[in-house]
Amino acid sequence: MEFVSPEGLRLDGRRPMEMRQIRAEIGAVTKADGSAVFEMGNTKVIAAVYGPREVQNRSQQINDQALVRCEYSMANFSTGDRMRKPKGDRRSTEISLVIRQTMEACILTHLMPRSQIDIFVQVLQADGGTRSACINAATLALADAGIPMRDLVTSCSSGYLNSTPLLDLNYVEDSAGGPDVTVGFLPKLDKVTLLQMDSKLPIDIFENVMQLAIEGCKAIANYIREIMLENTKQLEYRRGI
Amino acid sequence: MAGKPGTTPTTYSPSPTNQKIRRPIFNENEVDWVRPDGRGFHQCRPAFFRTGAVNAASGSAYAEFGNTKVIVSVFGPRESKKAMMYSDIGRLNCSVSYTTFATPARGQGSEHKDFSSMLHKSLEGAIILETFPKTTVDVFALVLESGGSDLPVVISCASLALADAGILMHDLVASVSLSCLGKNLVIDPILEEESYQDGGLLITCMPSRYEVTQLTVTGEWSTPKINEGMQLCLDACSKLAKIMRSCLKEATSTSQE
Amino acid sequence: MVGLSLGEKHFIQGGIAQDIRSDGRKRLTYRPINVETGVIPQANGSARIRMGATDVISTVKAELGKPISLQPDKGKVSIYVDCSPTAAPMFEGRGGEELSTELSVALQRSLLGGKSGAGAGIDLSSLVVVEGKICWDLYIDCLVVCSDGNLLDALGAAIKAALSNTGIPRVQVAAGASGDEQPEVDISDEEFLQFDTSDIPVIVTLTKVGRHYIVDATTEEESQMSSAISISVNRKGHICGLTKRGGAGLDPSIVLDMISVAKHVSEQLMNKLDSEIAAAEAGEDES
């Protein structure tokens, strides 16, 4: 199948190095301590953060740092065909773990010993790149909850189809079976915290593809920063400062 | 069961619900159609109750309304599970399940979640939970044969089993349902009538206190009709409670002898 | 669970008794309702309803299926509710299942009518394509995103809004198929059929706190309730379903009084909701 046309356009009309339109909004869940919506094209996720608060299950308490927990769930209507999967299947357990590890790496957990932070991500629409969208939404929600972090961790994926590196794969490109590299990146520290790839790639091409994903992460980080600045300005305005 | 009531037929024949051709059981134009089992519209099936059906349980009861047969056993009050948080009132745990042979088509024999929560909601208002803090009472209901109006029978039978277990209650809980078929209200419907009903109404109440603990309505109803239906059900409930009470009295008098 | 101090409890109860609630509302006033339609493009119809902090999404998906043999002239509708853990940490894992089932059952009871289909908001016979062979199966999936009380009313309203947003593709049946053969169908991409949603009832939940009833209770107010009755009322003023919650017993005359109050409130809610839905649809068409 042809994923990049001779004119250099992808199936949805994007250029190979073009990202889908991203949109973010802070404070979608009123009752949560922090929350955010993140959209990448048709992919839409909500993240809510509860905490830091008392540890619910005493046996899980850690005495010198905070306990970070994460649950990823997909709405029944999030995919094209209606699905009715039981909660906690292997895929969502794996993604929960990935998100938890990524977020734990950037939260300053040692500042909040004997407490618990819950991150819940809910996929409303899935069109490829849910992992990345979830991490981006979780970052914003954590920032909204005022939880101290080393840096804003952002995530983006890239792939390699028809001998072309492609940024931010959608569902059709993702299910083509080609390599799919997901990167989690700390822009200020210039460090990669998450790196996942399925399928195989020669090492020199892999470097290019990964670099592309990192560029994507940087662009998202800039956008997230803008959104947060905007949000802070509004808060200031409402307080009348 | 030990004592068969005189009202049920002595020979057993399978209920004719799995007929190939289903004809409507009533004709709307006909004013005086008869119910499949020959009852009047406002006539309940003969009720039979007996306590002490399960020896291992702290209290139990068996109920038989026509073809509907249920058995309810109550365990406890016993210590709540360790994982549960401290609670200064008792907990009630209800579960309603069907046997695999309860329905005309062979079933799964699994728990009926909807009925379980309905049973819980109907009973919790009647039980004085303050009398057994930190403990749990388990109510297990098993529908041996489903012949219509299963839930009301389960609820009435469960309250009798709770009484048999010596758990303090404000009052016995009696429950009656009715179906709306065309213009008519039919009390205590059988399976066939239930599958054709335009609407259904279920009331559980504590007759001596004259309080409704649970009420559900399905289908389209006008206000006067709801009034009429509720009045009919409440009436039937108080009569049913009398039968339940006499069954309890009978059980205690025989044990004293 | 809501942790409230004794003082807060008294404040809420006292406010309700004096007909001015903690957020300034009267006993029978709803919070502002915000309707957004077409939020999930992948579904045939969708809507998001916000009432104060309560936030729910409802979607309708239509799939072709086979009618059940007992009712060959009727389509199928099923309603599922899912409580997202984003709404409250206690819905994590399987924690939300109990509430989800309770809400699903209550919605089915309120909106789908009796067994024979009388009083249903959706006319099931309109979903049949070929009698006995093909019909539409409507899957109504709801998601609770944020919960601040009165979920049932919000979900009922969201389903109504989602159904009025729903377009079902027109189906062409290929002629010639006879007997037991499954006829071939052609689903149109362009022509859509709209639902008539005027018959769909609205759900009004009256929460009894002390001696008074309130509508649209928040989580804090719900924690103070002795019992609540959810009544679904259609445009004709007929009752299409009723569910009682809360363990405490009620006098039958109070139940009847609550029904009449709910009928009165439902008229206002129905009109308000209809205008909000119309405004949301108009807004969507423009953008």
TrEMBL record, chain A:
It holds the Pfam family RNase_PH. GO terms for molecular function: RNA binding. Residues 18-148, 151-216 form the Exoribonuclease phosphorolytic domain. One of its GO terms (cellular component) is cytoplasmic exosome (RNase complex). Its main location: cytoplasm. Keywords: Cytoplasm, Exosome. It is found in: Cytoplasm; Nucleus, Nucleolus. The keyword Cytoplasm applies. SUPFAM superfamilies: Ribonuclease PH domain 2-like, Ribosomal protein S5 domain 2-like. The keyword NAD does not apply. One of its GO terms (biological process) is U4 snRNA 3'-end processing. Belongs to the RNase PH family. This is Exosome complex component RRP41 homolog.
UniProtKB/TrEMBL annotation, chain B:
The keyword Mitochondrion does not apply. Keywords: Cytoplasm, Exosome, Nucleus, RNA-binding, rRNA processing. It comes from the Eukaryota. Belongs to the RNase PH family. GO terms for biological process: nuclear mRNA surveillance; poly(A)-dependent snoRNA 3'-end processing; rRNA catabolic process; rRNA processing; U4 snRNA 3'-end processing. Pfam families: RNase_PH, RNase_PH_C. It is found in: Cytoplasm; Nucleus. One of its GO terms (molecular function) is RNA binding. This is Uncharacterized protein. Its main location: cytoplasm. Residues 1-24 are annotated as: Disordered. Residues 1-17 have a biased composition (Low complexity). CDD domains: RNase_PH_MTR3 (cd11371). One of its GO terms (cellular component) is nucleolus. Residues 43-167, 171-232 form the Exoribonuclease phosphorolytic domain. InterPro entries: ExoRNase_PH_dom1, ExoRNase_PH_dom2, ExoRNase_PH_dom2_sf, PNPase/RNase_PH_dom_sf, Ribosomal_Su5_D2-typ_SF, RNase_PH. Gene3D superfamilies: GHMP Kinase, N-terminal domain.
Automatic annotation (TrEMBL), chain C:
GO terms for molecular function: mRNA 3'-UTR AU-rich region binding. Residues 30-169, 199-263 form the Exoribonuclease phosphorolytic domain. GO terms for biological process: exonucleolytic trimming to generate mature 3'-end of 5.8S rRNA from tricistronic rRNA transcript (SSU-rRNA, 5.8S rRNA, LSU-rRNA); nuclear mRNA surveillance; nuclear polyadenylation-dependent rRNA catabolic process; rRNA catabolic process; TRAMP-dependent tRNA surveillance pathway; U1 snRNA 3'-end processing; U4 snRNA 3'-end processing; U5 snRNA 3'-end processing. Keywords: Cytoplasm, Exosome. Pfam families: RNase_PH, RNase_PH_C. It is found in: Cytoplasm; Nucleus, Nucleolus. The keyword Cytoplasm applies. GO terms for cellular component: cytoplasmic exosome (RNase complex); nuclear exosome (RNase complex); nucleolus. The keyword Cytoplasm applies. Belongs to the RNase PH family. This is Ribosomal RNA-processing protein 42. It comes from Quercus rubra.
